[in-house]
Amino acid sequence: MANLKEVKERINSVSSTQQITKAMKMVAAAKLRRAQDKITQMRPYSQKLSAILNNISSGAEGSTDIIYARERPVSKVLIVAITSDKGLCGAFNSNILKASMLSIQEKYEGKQVTIMPIGKKAFDFFKKKDFPIISDHYQLFEDVSFEPVKKAAEEVMNAFVNGTYDQVQLVYNEFKNVATQLVVQEQFLPIAKLESEEGANQSSQEYIVEPSREYIIKELVPNSLKIQFYKAILDSNASEHGARMTAMSKATDNAAELLKELKLVYNRTRQAAITNEILEIVAGANALEGN
């Protein structure tokens, strides 16, 4: 009977856990819808701006008159690692941390690397490492809006212009759908030049620039970079909720399977206990009759 009690307690525990994971799945689904709407509306605008930006920087004189496109020998690197504030979202955070560390060890080996963690998970991970950390913006996900993200982007852009860093890389999860998030390592600064055949065709196109090329460089380029930074945040935010929804859905399904097995064990144990009691009663009755 003690064993029967243990199984019953475990059934109650798993059932409670299943209710929690089911509730978390519903909350993640509601948040995902809002986050998905934001990134799907932002992405076409951001992609078009990036195409124009790359086209301008890939021109004959683009890399010389755009301060954000000037390439220097890479010795000082800033990696912006974008994770979430909370866990329970599968491998969402660990994939970013692994990709960041792999990039440091392989691509930037021997370089002076600084980390800008965005999200508490990245901050908690990198503060235990031996890298300089910019810790002013790791709480951006407390309020996912353009203004706080803009300040973080401006700090990164000014640091690049001042020569504090020679290259800036974003590491984040790109949202594809609820079940799929791709780890992206994207060069933020200097502005990457078009290298593909398609990019070469685009760069050869003649753009009519109004009111002037100087105005475009002064106004459009900084704003485009800020929007690109904001898009990475929105991508990561939507990916987080998608990953959490998937993880909680799997956890709920696993709890249902475990409950099914535990109830079967409980019924078998209970049946065995009842059978033993009947045998004891019959044996006792037979003993009395024998006397």
From TrEMBL:
<protein>
    <recommendedName>
        <fullName>ATP synthase gamma chain</fullName>
    </recommendedName>
</protein>
<keyword id="KW-0472">Membrane</keyword>
<keyword id="KW-0813">Transport</keyword>
<comment type="similarity">
    <text>Belongs to the ATPase gamma chain family.</text>
</comment>
<dbReference type="Pfam" id="PF00231">
    <property type="entry name" value="ATP-synt"/>
</dbReference>
<keyword id="KW-0066">ATP synthesis</keyword>
<comment type="function">
    <text>Produces ATP from ADP in the presence of a proton gradient across the membrane. The gamma chain is believed to be important in regulating ATPase activity and the flow of protons through the CF(0) complex.</text>
</comment>
<dbReference type="InterPro" id="IPR035968">
    <property type="entry name" value="ATP_synth_F1_ATPase_gsu"/>
</dbReference>
<keyword id="KW-0139">CF(1)</keyword>
<keyword id="KW-0406">Ion transport</keyword>
<keyword id="KW-0375">Hydrogen ion transport</keyword>
<dbReference type="InterPro" id="IPR000131">
    <property type="entry name" value="ATP_synth_F1_gsu"/>
</dbReference>
<keyword id="KW-1003">Cell membrane</keyword>
<comment type="subunit">
    <text>F-type ATPases have 2 components, CF(1) - the catalytic core - and CF(0) - the membrane proton channel. CF(1) has five subunits: alpha(3), beta(3), gamma(1), delta(1), epsilon(1). CF(0) has three main subunits: a, b and c.</text>
</comment>
<dbReference type="InterPro" id="IPR023632">
    <property type="entry name" value="ATP_synth_F1_gsu_CS"/>
</dbReference>
